[in-house]
Amino acid sequence: MTVKVSCIGLKGLEGYRVQAEVQISPGMNSMVIVGLPDASVKESKERVLSAIRSLNCGGANQKIVVNLSPSEQKKNGPFFDLAIAIGILKEMGHINGEIPSDSLFLKYRCLV
């Protein structure tokens, strides 16, 4: 089964909807992010997996594939981390409730 979680990407000052689709299957421990991610998005796999491991929710021998769509739009920044983490936790069975299709998840950090 594929879990779909909506989030927001930024192109300049304008936002656009991104769908993070997460699928977990048996295999070697790995995580792949596809859908035109730049280096900062590819680094999110380390941030997300570290956070999931710190919650003792990580599973062994799992291959995680994350597709960020629309695939033709370049993705940049750490904005997708929360949606990816929620998708992984839902796919692993740690989140039981439904994720509303009209909800968006955004990681935001304010530097003061």
TrEMBL record:
Gene3D superfamilies: 3.30.230.10. This is Magnesium chelatase family protein. The lineage of its organism: Bacteria, Bacillati, Bacillota, Bacilli, Bacillales.
